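Q: How would the C-alpha cells look for this protein?
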Amino acid sequence: MDFEREQLAQRVDRLREALGQASRRFGAPPLLLAVTKEQPPERVNLLAAVGITQIAESRAQEWRDKSGGLLPGFELHWIGRLQTNKIKYIIDQVCLVHSLDRPALAEELGRHGQRAGRRVAALVQVNVAKEAQKAGLPIGDLPHFLRQYGGHPGLELQGLMAIMPDLNEDEEPETLRPYFRLMRETFESVAGQNIAGVEMRHLSMGMSADCIVAAQEGATIVRVGTGIFGIA
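A: Here is the predicted structure in C-alpha cell form.
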C-alpha cells in the first residue's frame, strides 16, 4: 500500500503542476476532482494523504456500498446522470450535482432541497457537441432553463458542466479545443446576463485524457479518474 500511495502522490503532483501551468491566464488552477467510481474504499482513502478531499461518483448503489468505508472529510460531487428516484440516496451527502440536465430533475432536486431546509448546489449540463447519445441541454435552451430555475428556493445554480466527445485512439485532445472554448464563451455569456438566482462560479469540463486542454480554456473543475489512480 505504501508503494501504491507513492505512485498516486507522484501522479497527483504531476497533474497539479501541469494544470497550474495550463491555467495561468485564468489565475488559479482548476479544482482537481478525483473520480472514484469503481475504486474500492481503501484506494479512495489514499487521496487524503495527498490533500484531495473532493471526490466524484456516478452510481447511487455503488456510493451507498462504499461510503461507509471512507475516512471522514471527503466531499461528494455527483457527475453521472441522476435518476429522480435515486436522489434520496445521495441528497444528504452530496455537495455539488454536476449533471442537472432536465426540468424533471431540477424540480425533484429542488423539492428535496426544500424538505431538507437547504438549496441544492448544481451545475447545468450542456450538450456542447450536440451528441444524441449524451445528456445535457442545447446551448440555445440555457437562458430559458436558468431563468426558470435560478430562483427556485431549493436549488442553487452555480455554473455549467459538459462532457466532451470521446476521442478515438488516433485523435489528440487538441481536436476538442473548439468545444472547450465554446463552453468557456457560453459560461462568460451567461455570467454577463446576470440571471437572477444564477451564479457562474464553476465550469466543470475535462477528464483524464483532455484535462490540460480544458484548463487552458478556462475550466474551474476537471474530473480525473485514470490520471490519478492509473490503469487497473
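Residues 37 and 57 are 5 Å apart (CA to CA).

The first helix runs from residue 2 to 22.

Upvote if useful.
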